[in-house]
Amino acid sequence: MLKISKKSDYALMALQHIASVQFGDITPGRVVNTKEIAEEYNIPLELLAKVLQALSKNGLIESHNGPKGGYLLARSARQITIAQILESIEGPLALTDCSHEKEGEFCMQREHCNIRTPLLKVQDSIYQLLNNMTLGDMLGGTPLITIQSPSTQGVEP
Amino acid sequence: MLKISKKSDYALMALQHIASVQFGDITPGRVVNTKEIAEEYNIPLELLAKVLQALSKNGLIESHNGPKGGYLLARSARQITIAQILESIEGPLALTDCSHEKEGEFCMQREHCNIRTPLLKVQDSIYQLLNNMTLGDMLGGTPLITIQSPSTQGVEP
DNA sequence: TTGATCGGAGATCATTATAGTCTCCGATCG
DNA sequence: CGATCGGAGACTATAATGATCTCCGATCAA
Prior knowledge:
The structure is a homodimer. Chain A is mainly α. Chain A has 6 helices and 2 strands, in the order αααββααα.
């Protein structure tokens, strides 16, 4: 349950790759094109293209046209949250259809619905979780989110 | 994104209803049948039946056959977590296909996958969230989960 | 200035998941 | 016995997803 789509997977992989190239030691600042990512991670080229276009439209990456073109992060990896990435691809976080109900829409269960409020709270908690973790966190092997229990794990490389 | 299925919605509504009847003031201990819930919440009867059967199989509710039959919670509402309910209907929590990968299964991206570990951590956090909230929490209007910010709400009944 | 290389955008198709329906069975109680 | 309940399987329709194809405009370098 609660699976994210392949497209979101691809988005995360691509962004991780772009970030690691852009801020890596080898060729910092280099733009990364779709083909390079598709081959590296075995992602269908044209599908990945769609994903990157969506990320570009949502302002997470910058596109550069023409030969030697490609993509760059639009801002620091620490300023790009997992929530932003997922929402760019899959739309707003919504556990239920009635999460972002507009006027005019209607829910058959609404009249006696007994779960809307608690579910919205759960949804909010999940959103906080996803919005508190950034692409930067995914890069360095940093401790990431801890929801409870301050774990006593060893340090990472 | 991350939407739960209608079946899960129905499960949550049904359990909330059963719990409120069972521990309510009017007719405590009364069994609740499928038809009653379906009519109350405008849920297709036969679909709800499937949902309740799944909940029964997973040990969240007890079924009673025959006339005057129906369902009862199998244990206290405080001992039934949202995670258990959702997993009964939709299977194990898995943000990605590789979350619970068995031997033999394979992921095209696995070789250079750079997001598996961080995603598993996110998944774990979400699971904790869902497993720390119970059906009982959904009943009383209790404070529910707080992921951060120790809220200054009133005490529980 | 021309052509190869890039991203942008739209339509299209196949596959899968979901939502919902239909039918028949066995258990139970009055 | 028979009406009322849950249990279980097959089945259909629709929507979401994953993936592909085609054409366009921008860019840069030869």
